[in-house]
Specification:
Layout: E1 5-12, E2 18-23, E3 26-32, E4 43-53, E5 55-60, H1 79-90, H2 98-111, E6 114-122, H3 130-141, E7 147-153, H4 164-173, E8 178-182, H5 191-205, E9 208-212, H6 217-234, E10 240-243, H7 255-264, E11 268-271, H8 282-288, E12 292-294, H9 311-321, H10 327-345, E13 369-372, H11 377-383, E14 388-392, E15 395-399, E16 402-403, H12 412-415
Parallel strand pairs: 1-4, 5-6, 6-7, 7-8, 8-9, 9-10, 10-11, 11-12
Antiparallel strand pairs: 1-2, 2-3, 4-13, 13-14, 14-15, 15-16
Helix pairs in contact: 2-3, 5-6, 6-7, 9-10
Bound molecules: zinc ion.
Length: 417
């Protein structure tokens, strides 16, 4: 892949039309339309379309997705543990293998414009490394179309069942990029041992950590303090992400100081734009300089019927749950869903620290884009145009939401009826 492309007549963030010269997968120059002759090499006529930084799904579960399969009613007990056990009871009998389902969902995400992805892959005593291997296969299949980070994720805790620590260790030897963790108080009921195991594996493999934290209120703030203690003691600044961080939505007195401590330790936040009780103080986090990204989380799986593989839908949901309505606010939600996530995967990218930023279109920025027919970014979020062109590392990887090599296109359910 040469990473060379001349993009003509595109409107970054809905602004004036420009041409963009791309070399080696990054922006070489941006110029007013028609003022610079196209060099030899591939040219893409943007036809005046809106261009945005590619979408980023930085909290995804490729292994659990049943996207595209016939709809299945939820059959488990309510609550988090009921969902975990519902998955355990049913994942083997899904119509397609983990690898096929993960590949289908990854292709759907890419075709909709997401080229920067962080997915969790469940590792537990029941599935061992089967789900992890399925996610690895999906990443391999679309290695030329998206950057995918994989988190070795102990969905059922690390301490409750034998062998999980060693399985996580094996996943990290086998290609996982980060070590995961989950609700150290509520799942393993032993936060010190849980977090010590997570950080031991992070140190052993010299990888970052991405810890699910659904714990609410004071309990969640307490767990955050335990995580931050370890970041500080082990010099893990800039290498830890908290997923969901629900306690930051609590409005408790300890939240502002926790946000400052997250910022000081360059700890990132990803979430799924959940509704009541899960709405993060996005602008406070931005003002403090905390990197925030968003993702689809589980989709059409044994936890939830929600999700459709389109991160632009999740940008809409983020704007909706934050009660955003002005253009700068909706654009901020879109910036979080594009650049915010990208800046978590690559700390070289500047942080979104306020409203009104239109990142991604200066020389040296990565040539990761999505083009669509929309008059403005806010119109794009509201209308979610179906036809999109996706560029990864300066190469066109998907045109009109039809990904080259997408061998299981979005019609499993209908095809099987
Ligand atoms: Zn999750």
């Amino acid at each position: 892949m040469s990473g060379k492309l001349h993009l003509t007549n595109v409107r970054p963030w809905g602004g004036d039309p420009v041409d963009i010269a791309i070399e080696k997968g990054a922006i070489a120059a941006v110029s007013a339309v028609g003022t610079v002759a196209a060099p030899a090499g591939p040219v893409l006529d943007g036809a005046g379309r809106l261009i945005l930084p590619a979408l980023s799904d930085v909290h995804l579960h490729l292994d659990s997705s049943c996207l595209g399969l016939p709809f299945r009613a939820y059959t488990g007990e309510p609550g988090r543990w009921g969902r975990i056990m519902n998955d355990r009871a049913n994942w083997r009998s899904a119509e397609r293998s983990v690898a096929e389902r993960a590949t289908f969902t990854l292709a759907t995400a890419i075709a909709n414009g997401a080229t920067r992805i962080r997915t969790h892959a469940q590792v537990d005593a029941d599935s061992k490394l089967t789900k992890f291997d399925g996610v690895l296969a999906a990443r391999e299949r679309y290695a030329d179309a998206a950057d995918v980070q994989i988190v070795a994720f102990p969905q059922v805790g690390i301490l409750l069942e034998p062998g999980v620590f060693d399985l996580l260790d094996a996943a990290l030897r086998g290609g996982a990029d980060l070590i995961g963790g989950i609700d150290p108080c509520e799942i393993d009921r032993d936060p010190v041992r849980h977090l010590d195991a997570v950080f031991e594996l992070a140190e052993r493999h010299q990888v970052g950590a991405d810890i699910h934290l659904h714990e609410a209120g004071e309990l969640g703030l307490f767990t955050l303090s335990l995580i931050l203690e370890r970041v500080e003691a082990l010099g893990m600044q800039g290498r830890v992400t908290i997923s969901h961080a629900r306690a930051l939505a609590s409005g408790l007195r300890g939240v502002p100081a926790t946000i400052e401590r997250l910022a000081a330790n360059r700890v990132d936040i990803t979430h799924a734009a959940g509704g009541s009780g899960w709405e993060l103080p996005l602008l406070d986090l931005a003002a403090a300089g905390v990197r925030v990204g968003v993702g689809m989380d589980g989709q059409r799986d044994y936890w939830s019927p929600y999700g459709n593989g389109d991160m632009l839908d999740r940008a809409w949901q983020l704007a909706f749950v934050q009660r955003y309505s002005s253009d700068p606010q909706v654009e901020h939600a879109l910036a979080v869903a594009t650049w915010g996530g990208a800046s978590i995967l690559d700390h070289e990218l500047p942080v979104l620290d306020r409203l009104g930023l239109h990142p991604g279109f200066t020389s040296g920025d990565p040539a990761e884009f999505v083009l669509m027919d929309a008059v403005s970014p806010t119109a794009a979020v509201m209308d979610r145009p179906a036809e999109r062109t996706v560029i990864h590392q300066g190469a066109v990887v998907s045109v009109d939401t039809a990904l080259d090599g997408f061998e299981i296109p979005g019609h499993w359910g209908r095809a099987r009826q």
